[in-house]
Design goal:
The protein contains three helices and nine strands, in the order αββαββββββαβ. By secondary structure, it is mainly beta. The chain has a single domain (8-15, 22-61, 68-152), classed as Jelly Rolls (Sandwich). The strands form two sheets. The protein has a seven-stranded mixed β-sheet. A hairpin with a 5-residue loop joins β5 and β6. The longest helix is centred in the first third of the chain and has 7 residues, at 8-14. It starts with 7 loop residues before the first helix and ends with a strand. The relative contact order is 0.27.
Length: 153
């Protein structure tokens, strides 16, 4: 997404309009989630480039507490399976093009490879430091609201 698109995503989501990801150059951003009336903002690496979003956590060695990686795909994916890493503990969530949660996994198994069926229509995948889903009060009703890029490539 270009510089105009970050929190403009909020406006599109509020209108129920699908938002398509585009090739982008955001390195890290403040990502906002909403669960009912609770808003959570997390600092996350943003993987918008196709080569990055398809890799998930392949090149990630650690995740900051209350943070992680947001993968933005170029189109909604069907029958998506995502996995974390065998070297870190990572919760995972997937979201549709309108920002609604599709699936989540709280990593309780420790640093081992976990796979999760992410569902159909996945446009965003969030890989979060272990315990973040619980600490940030995220659940199946959570919506991805948008993000502000804090560091460009």
């Amino acid at each position: 997404m270009g510089p105009i698109g970050r929190m403009a995503l909020l406006g599109f989501l509020a209108l129920g309009q699908p938002v398509q990801a585009q090739e982008g150059d955001c390195l890290t951003g403040l990502v906002e989630f909403r669960t009912g009336v609770i808003r959570s903002t997390l600092m996350m690496d943003i993987h918008e480039r196709r080569i990055e979003s398809g890799q998930g956590l392949t090149n990630t060695r650690n995740l900051p507490p209350m943070g992680g990686v947001l993968s933005v795909y170029s189109f909604p994916r069907k029958n998506t399976t995502i996995e974390n890493s065998d070297s870190i503990v990572a919760d995972m969530m997937t979201f549709s093009e309108d920002g609604r949660a599709i699936a989540l996994l709280k990593d309780k198994s420790g640093p081992q490879l976990d796979r999760m069926y992410g569902g159909d229509g996945v446009l965003y995948a969030a890989y979060l430091a272990g315990g973040t889903i619980e600490a940030a009060a995220l659940d199946e009703t959570t919506e991805l609201v948008g993000w502000d890029c804090m560091q460009w490539r």
